[in-house]
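User: Modeling request: complex.
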Amino acid sequence: MVILEGHVHYDAFGGFHHVYANDNALAALKAGKFYPKGSVFVFELYEAVKANNAISEGTRKVIGVMEKDPDRFSVTAGWGFEDFKEADPNQRSVTNMQEQCMSCHETQKSSDYVYSTYQE
Amino acid sequence: MVILEGHVHYDAFGGFHHVYANDNALAALKAGKFYPKGSVFVFELYEAVKANNAISEGTRKVIGVMEKDPDRFSVTAGWGFEDFKEADPNQRSVTNMQEQCMSCHETQKSSDYVYSTYQE
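Assistant: Request completed. Predicted assembly structure:
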């Protein structure tokens, strides 16, 4: 998907989204079930460059990771979050997972806090 | 990329593009070289559904294939083309490769008739 200007999450997530799931996450996503420990999503965000009635991918801005580990991340419903900014991948971006991540993701509680849906 | 309304190729290729390359095609694409026999690109076209300042993928409309085989496709610079429409994948769509495919692809002669470019 492409998040455009005017979207409520444009500042953080404007651009092209690519979402990757490991085996655990994919099985739960397909089955519509809750995610087991070890489920991982990786999310790439690319700049959206609009020209000549087309939107192309520009540079990659961020890689986001979402990992299910109820032991380590009990405060945030079992999910841990981190962002790796292309400009400075060694700098931690997420300092408060509840505030920066779960405050939005908790609207997706019925799908275990995951926004992505599976499409054949 | 997403081809939007108003684009010169909107009627045929409006929507989300996913392009896949086999090993031969990928090596040539990365190196910026001409494509050897056996190079294959597969192209998926998904409907672009716009809502709430985001564009999401709808249904898949077409799978396109482009194969380099100078023996079989000498008339069209060595490339063969076929489309498989989601609605009727057994129906051949391309009946005249020169007219339906090369008439546009020949604008990309300097990259061996390939529109795609490689991005790390």
